Amino acid sequence: MAKNTKQSSAKVSKLAAKTLSDSNSSKISKSLAASVVSQSSTKRETGKEMETKASEVLKSDKYSEDTKTLAASVLSQSNKSR
Length: 82
Hints:
The protein starts with 9 loop residues before the first helix and ends in a 6-residue tail after the last helix. The chain is mainly α. The chain is about 60% helix and about 0% strand. It is built from four helices and no strands. It has one domain.
């Protein structure tokens, strides 16, 4: 199985931290942000369920650019063989 060694960038990690501390952030954006933070200094990869959520966010027009940025980061750290 191919391992993904990518980590969240400092810029996206900062956005994720801001999202988590914002009481107005949506549940999905906080979920994506938590995934980004958990991958910011480790070699963890995105789970299948989170990959699906992130993919749905990117396909939809109803999410903000910040939420889509978090989703893209999450997907970039997914298992490439899935």
